[in-house]
Specification:
The complex is a heterodimer of chains A (381) and B (264).
Chain A lengths: L1 H6 L17 H9 L4 H27 L16 H5 L8 H12 L8 H18 L7 H18 L16 H26 L5 H15 L3 H15 L8 H27 L2 H9 L4 H16 L1 H14 L11 H9 L8 H33 L3
Helix pairs in contact in A: 5-15, 6-7, 6-8, 8-9, 8-11, 8-14, 9-11, 10-11, 11-13, 11-14, 12-13, 14-16, 15-16
Chain B lengths: L20 E12 L2 E12 L3 E5 L6 H8 L7 E6 L2 E2 L4 H10 E4 L11 H11 L5 H14 L15 H13 L5 E5 L7 H16 L3 E5 L3 H7 L2 E6 L2 E6 L1 H6 L4 H13 L1
Parallel strand pairs in B: 3-8, 3-9, 6-7, 7-8
Antiparallel strand pairs in B: 1-2, 1-4, 4-5, 9-10
The chains are: A mainly alpha (381), B alpha/beta (264).
The structure holds adenosine-5'-diphosphate and magnesium ion.
Amino acid sequence: MSQTAATADKGYTAARERPPSSVAGPVAWLRTNLFSSWLSTAVTLLLGYLILRVVISFISWALLHAIWSVPYNAQGQPDTSACIDARGIGACWAIIGNKYRLILFGRYPYAEQWRPAICVVLFLALYVVSAIRAFWRPVLVLIWIAALAVIGVLMWGGTLGLRYVPEDEWGGLPITLILATFGLAFAFPLSVLVALGRRSRTLPAVRMLCVLYVELIRGVPLIALLFMASVMFPLFMPEGVNVNKLLRAQIAIILFAAAYLAEVVRGGLQALPKGQAEAADALGLSYWQKTGVIILPQALRLVIPPLVNTFIGFFKDTSLVLIVGMFDLLMMGKVALSDPPWQSFSTEVYLMLAVIYIAFCFAMSKYSRGLERELGRAHRR
Amino acid sequence: MSQTSVTEHIIPHMVDTNKPPVIILDKVNKWFGPLHVLRDVSMTVAEKERVVVCGPSGSGKSTMIRCINRLESHQEGRIIVDRTELTDDLRSLDTIRSEVGMVFQSFNLFPHLTILENCTLAPIWVRKMPKAAAEDVAMSFLTRVKIPEQAKKYPGQLSGGQQQRVAIARALCMRPKIMLFDEPTSALDPEMIKEVLDVMIELADSGMTMVCVTHEMGFARQVADRVVFMDRGEIVESGRPEQMFGEPRTDRLKLFLSQILRGH
Ligand SMILES: Nc1ncnc2c1ncn2[C@@H]1O[C@H](COP(=O)(O)OP(=O)(O)O)[C@@H](O)[C@H]1O
Ligand SMILES: [Mg+2]
């Protein structure tokens, strides 16, 4: 105190040390947040009791009384009687041990399942590389094209001594990742173009087309679009031309996602002050220079939260392809449960699927928050 | 066609210097929907001339100045900048934009780029200058506006006065022949106005052709060769600053001057 007073300028109030805070420490935190009055104390105790009960019974079910494996008879049939006896008391994780490869890789030939496994790892690597800002340069496009090619070779085979596997036999996680990744990877640039087209003042025809596209696609449920792609589309194609089912579903998802993303991007474009475009114009930048260097970097940063929201939605919406007979991750869970000995253990299977979906969606949302913070740090306003 | 010499007839509010005019507005009319914002606006600006435009809010000053680099397009009349007539032709637009610098009331710096990047952006993309050379040029102009030490910061970290000086440096990096200013000090706190005006005075002394919308009478007296008074979309009066402020001829200018003097 005396020090600060000594260094203070004459005539000015001297800076003082901050008074000790009375609301620090965990005890104080608990008191202000959980036990501030008798009502809040009662609510805290009641909720605490309920949460504890649920957690304890879940641990007891999922870990303590769980059955991790079951015996198999001479024909290789599982004897699930132990699991059936334990129903409602302990989880039957044996079904996961028995079925995880079916769920993850579908009907892909068993001996070849290392190929989709590598593809899944490649996808994960692709996500990580794309997430690192140091890679945000043209080379990333090449990386994506290369990854796409490798994934295609691995999944289809037919070259390099790999057995040919038609896409009817694909299933599980690779299908989900293919639909989601390429769906969003193509839908996003398309949506940016549509959003820009919708705001074009010099090209009214382009603007009309973009409005029409967004309104038409948004007005139709994704399921209807998938049906159209799988049932109606082949009717319009000339005899002998056969675009495969996966590609058709993929295109339907791209078109659908792009319409939604375009509106999100347009929101960002609209939120940007007009002065930014005017300053770029006044400096003589061309339309594409202005858009690429000034407008989009700022507009997209503004809409990271709704963009990621839409991304997460579409990641899960890919499961709708089960409607048109494709075996994505969710569908493979259903298939696994149709095996008679395991029919009654859906909780365990859906729990596993939920964990997988949550892992991807949580990673996306966590990353987007980090990105927002990092980009926001660059220019505090 | 686009290489037009001086128009045939006499243009009012013309300069009486013998230097060639670099900006010619000839009976320019503009409407925003039904609103007639520029009414037969005619004037010329000679090379190295410093023109200050003043007038009440909403009188069309911004619109006129924005027509000169075609941020707005006019509907009638002709605008000729540096012997190029402004039309819908994109090539003439590119020429004009890279020769006319503009400074806005609200700075309009690019917040996601550093000060240095703000300044090097257009030279690199439009003038195709190598990055190192563009940075040298940018640093020299940032030094001229007295903030070289802020080059690595972002606009949001600077004060308003500093931001406006960066905006001036950014425009100068394109080495424009003409500089347009649209109320460059109106959005600033009083204590920052001087630092921006000082930079503008220095620029005027260096012989830049300037058209400046401002109500800073001191600045107008010190640097303007001519003051143009606009009201309701037309140019009412123009002349040397001491004559305009000392012995206004029209009632509209007298009224306007009494209003801003009361405001100050
Ligand atoms: N983009 C626009 N659309 C419609 N009206 C406008 C637009 N910009 C300016 N105006 C109108 O034109 C008139 C002149 O505006 P402006 O040139 O900004 O005046 P000043 O700069 O002298 O204050 C005002 O009445 C204003 O409301
Ligand atoms: Mg104005």
